[in-house]
Amino acid sequence: MKADPKGVLTGVHFMDGDHAACEGALAAGCRFVAGYPITPSTEVVERFAQRIPLIGGVFIQMEDEVASSIAIQGAVWAGKKAMTVTSGPGLSLMMEHVGLAALTEAPLVIVDVQRGGPSTGLPTLPGQADMMQVKWGSHGDYEIIALSPNSPQECFDLMIRAFNLSETYRVPVFFMMDEVVGHMTERVAIPEPSEIEIVERRWSSKKPGEYKAYATGADMVPDMVKAGDGHRIHITGLTHDERGYPALTPAAQKKLVERLVNKIRLRRHELVDVRKDGVDGAEVVVASFGITSRVAQAAVEEARRKGGKVAHLRLVIAWPFPDKLFQELSRRVKAFIVPELNMGQMALEVERAVAGRCAVVPIPHAGGTVHEPAAILEKIMESSR
Amino acid sequence: MPKTEIRVGGLGGQGVILCGSIIGKAAAIHGGKHATMIQAFGPEARGSACSAQVMVSEEPIGYPYVKNPDVLVLMSPDAYKLFAPSLKPGGLVLYESDLVHLDKSLPAGARTKGIPATRFAEDLGRRLVLNIVMVGFFAGTTGLLSYEAVEKAVLDSVPKGTEDLNLRALKKGYEYGRSGR
Q1: Contacting A residues, span 187-206, partner chain B, CB-CB under 8 Å
Q2: pLDDT at B47
Q3: Which of A8, A263, A362, B117 is the most buried (most CB within 10 A)?
Q4: High-pLDDT (> 70) share of chain B, %
Q5: C-beta atoms of B62 and A180 within 8 A
Q6: What pLDDT is attached to residue B40?
Q7: Are residues A185 and B29, on separate chains, in Cβ contact within 8 Å?
Q8: For chain A, which residues make up each domain, given as ranges?
Q9: Angle at A38 between CA A35 and CA A39, to 5 degrees
Q10: Residue A90 to residue A93: CA distance in whole angstroms
Q11: How close, in Å, is residue A152 to chain B by CA atoms?
């Protein structure tokens, strides 16, 4: 279906990433946000709070992030598209409820505008150090999806994708911005509503009494109903059967947890989005994401001017990690170079995929600013030798 | 010039960020160029140091931080003290001449041009529009942006009912910049 025109601010704007992310959510049909303000993400909810009364929807400023991350799950079961918005310290508080959303298969979006950590860290300065936390932060086994925009335009475009993916797979989708992308102002073109494709919730057509909350077909994703439609359903954080009732046995656990991970793992080929530049004939490959990809691109171009055979892979979808592409490339390149604003997180995934077939050169950075392009250039030239 | 790095500096309340935003908007939306803006301000809203980093380029922009600006647009003595040493060799300093006083901290070879923007704004009726005078002064002096582009960006950016005042401020700064360019 197409976007609801009420939420779409068609036109060309000079807008920062936080505001563009909010407009993306509104265009995607998000009509409920619960949040607790935290730098550098506050502008997302500030704008939502200002815009939503005119569109029709709800913003609640909650008492904290724990409450925010559960309020949105209430809204989801009431039939709304919902998100919460935070930064590192708030994200840490939300982890309990990330697990609940994963287990109950609540489609929702969590925006993390990353700043320097750990703890309160650097509130107003960038980091990319929450990448492993969103993958592994809650206990137990589950899968999530994470997107990594590198511009205000992508904050708009990919936010629509984030909501669409959450509805398609019924997983929490993490929107991994960073302080620079969030606070940088750039041209943002918002198309006509008729040009924006929206994935509607997987509403069940079954009648009350026939509907089972967790019965699935081949795609492993159950259909939903919403409160008020006359169904009697049971949604729990306990391991449950197809009806949603607690089933505390190894057999039920196996069936449920395997499906929770396999609905992403066995369909991960659908979830690859890597922007490739100059892969053919490359000897060295720079792999990056978010704001670092823009700095890395400058280094890649400079290396090419110096005669380096260098490719650039930009992870637009960071989770699930695109193993296969890295495996294939590792058979014919000398090295992967992985700059990121953390002490080496996604570099571990690259190492895992590459499995020793070529070198992996992390370029860690503790955060607070972005890499100097010269630092990336130096590693490219070293690895090219 | 393929890429121009600009730092706008002043005090919270002078409209520093809006000044940077209008320059960026004029370039990115009305001027057919690429532009990024990054803003920084102190914890106090008014009276604290405040600056915007604007990059205007013919090519897409990777690294968005301005380290050694080609152009400084300065509206307070503190901003002058803070940013003058970072000016690129041979760079241009555009300054509010009643507030900023040049001294030997300015890098050798710097080109400078002052404008009594606050006084002009007061003469036009509202001190508040000094930032728009500075936008006009920037466009007139540098020639980086057409008058039409900045005019559209101002109209996009200012509150309804203040268009006439702001356009007069823009024109005043622009013409002052054009004179003796």
Answers
A1: 187
A2: 67
A3: B117
A4: 94
A5: no
A6: 76
A7: no
A8: 5-195, 276-384
A9: 140
A10: 5
A11: 10
Topology classification of domain B3-178:
Pyruvate-ferredoxin Oxidoreductase; domain 3 (3.40.920)
Nearest CA in chain B to A185: B37
* Sole residue written with tokens 């799950």: A73
Distance from CA of A325 to the nearest CA of B (A): 25
Cβ separation B64–A369 shorter than 8 A:
no
Query: Could you tell me the pLDDT band of residue B41, with boundaries at 50, 70 and 90?
Result: low
On whether any CB of chain B is under 8 Å from the CB of A184, the answer is: yes
Q: Give rounded-to-5 percent helix, strand, coil for chain B.
A: 40, 20, 35
Annotation: CATH topology of A5-195: Rossmann fold (3.40.50)
pLDDT at A157: 98
* Three-class secondary structure of residue B73 per DSSP: strand
Which residue has tokens 């502008």? A43
Among B37, B153, B156, select the one facing A185 at the smallest CB separation.
Answer: B37
Intervals of chain A under pLDDT 50: none
Q: How far apart (Å, rounded) are the C-alpha atoms in residues A375 and A378?
A: 5
Note the pLDDT of residue A46. 98
Partner residue opposite B62 with nearest CB, options A13, A183, A295 = A295
Location of structure tokens 């401020």: B169
**DSSP 8-state code for residue A85:** E
pLDDT attached to residue B181:
54
Rounded to whole angstroms, the Cα distance separating A149 from A163 reads: 14
The counts of H helices and E strands in chain A are: 12, 15
Q: Give me the residue spans of the domains in chain B.
A: 3-178
Q: How far apart are CA A212 and CA B53, in angstroms?
A: 56
Q: How far is CA B157 from CA A54, A58, A188, A289, A343, in A?
A: 21, 28, 15, 32, 41
Q: Which CATH number is correct for A276-384, 3.40.50.920, 3.20.20.140, 3.40.50.1820, 3.30.930.10?
A: 3.40.50.920
Give percent of chain A with pLDDT exceeding 90: 100
Find tokens 């909810």 and name the residue: A45
- Is the CB of A185 less than 8 angstroms away from the CB of B36? yes
Q: Which pLDDT belongs to residue B12?
A: 87
- Residues A207/A180, Cβ–Cβ less than 8 Å: no
Nearest CA in chain B to A152: B36
Residues A354/A327, Cβ–Cβ less than 8 Å: yes
Is B58 within 8 Å of B3 (Cβ atoms)? yes
Strand-pairing partners, residue A108, are A172
The half-sphere exposure of B84 on its side-chain side, counting CA atoms within 13 A, is 23
Cα nearest neighbour of A16 on chain B: B37
CB contact under 8 A, B28 and A14: yes
Write the residue in B21, B28, B64 that is nearest to A187 by C-beta. Answer: B28
**Min CA distance, B180 vs chain A (Å)?**
32
Beta bridge partners of A59: A33
